Amino acid sequence: MAFYEENPQGMKKSDIVVAIPSFNEAENIGHTAEQAAKGLLEYFGNQTSVIINCDNHSDDGTKDAFLAAPGAIPKIYLSTEPGVSGKGQNLRNLFEKVRELEAKAVVVLEADTKNVTPQWVRNLGEPVMRGAGYVCPLFVRHKYEATLTSSIIYPLMRCLYGRRVRQPDAGDFGFKGQLVEKFLEAPGWTESVQDHGIDIWMTTITLNSRLPIFQSFMGTPKIHRGRDPYAYLNVLFQEVLGTVFDQMTIYAGFWSQVKWSKPTALFGTDIQEVETPLPFEVNTARLHESFLQGFDRYGALWDEIYDQTICHKLQEIRGLGLQHFSFPAQTWASILFDSATAYHRVEPGRRNELLSALLPLYLGKVLSFVKKTERMSLQQAEEYIENECTIFEENKPYVVKIWE
Predict the structure, then answer these.
(1) Is 65 within 8 Å of 79 (Cβ atoms)?
(2) Residue 277 in domain
(3) By C-alpha distance, which of 251, 259, 282 is closest to 370?
(4) Residues 114 and 180 grouped into a single domain
(5) What is the value of pTM for the model shown?
(6) 50: containing domain
(7) Where on the phi/psi map is residue 71: left (φ > 0), alpha (ψ -120 to 50), or beta?
(8) Would you call 330 exposed, middle or buried from its count of C-beta atoms within 10 A (0-12, 13-18, 19+)?
(9) Each residue of 285-337: pLDDT tens digit?
(10) Are the C-beta atoms of residues 140 and 275 closer than 8 Å to each other?
């Protein structure tokens, strides 16, 4: 249960919940809460509703900013203990509160999104009211935004679990209230899940629960406050990919039987105006340098993990130079399959090292994607990604074989 709770209106039951996880978001959370209230009134006015701030005991006035936000919808503030951080910890408190409120539907919005609108509540909540178990957003993205998703998470999740969910870790989502029982009872609640791994953990559990999963087209980019994309890359990479690999062990009996992927139902196609993605700069020289540095630091470990044909291929790629750089999709798929299997087999104390060794190879794959698609439109780049996903699926028997 939450360490601390404020429930000024004494809410005991609610049909729909909008939740806002936070840590030191006093500057932004008021706007998000206000937009959530407008969305609940406009699209779910005939339902009882509540907005919940699940917080990490922020000391910047987040609680006061949330409770003071304009809007007629009741609010509840929940907090972890002082010193306990992580979005996953916040959402675990939320799951317990949703169960207590007996909510039918839950929408989660990130606190620091600057362009959230009432429409987001509708897009993520209405499919749940119509029978969806889980709803992932489909934001408008620049082709070089969220490359961790397009290069690893999407092709790997699609290949493993057989559903084409393009942004399974986007941070905002909707889900059926009954799913909280599965979330609270599910195995694999690791330190990574308690922080950045929570989104992909929830999506994976849903895919294995066989409940209907939807995508909802948002028609807009997602604008966060300014961040250095490299500042937390190593932590994010380890926690998200570590969670994916951990879930592979838990659900191997399911994914090893899945042959090909199926499309996912799409909501929100009635949106009339679609915004263009924001500009996104890529430092190709930095990516290339990070890839090359990996050989000195992790070359011996790569020789241990990967087949010799892969190691020879990596040496070929190393010698291409920046201008002609290319990283074949089949080589990349084999690397991810081998890495997942090695992660499954090694003692837990070596797993972080294995994930760190994969990071420079991922940066090399991103560089290759940039080089291949620099003259492509957004749609053409998406088609390129879809083709690479097909290569993952064609080579899936390899990972099933080596896993067993």
Answers:
(1) no
(2) no
(3) 282
(4) yes
(5) 0.96
(6) 4-267
(7) left
(8) middle
(9) 999 999 999 999 999 999 999 999 999 999 999 999 999 999 999 999 999 99
(10) yes
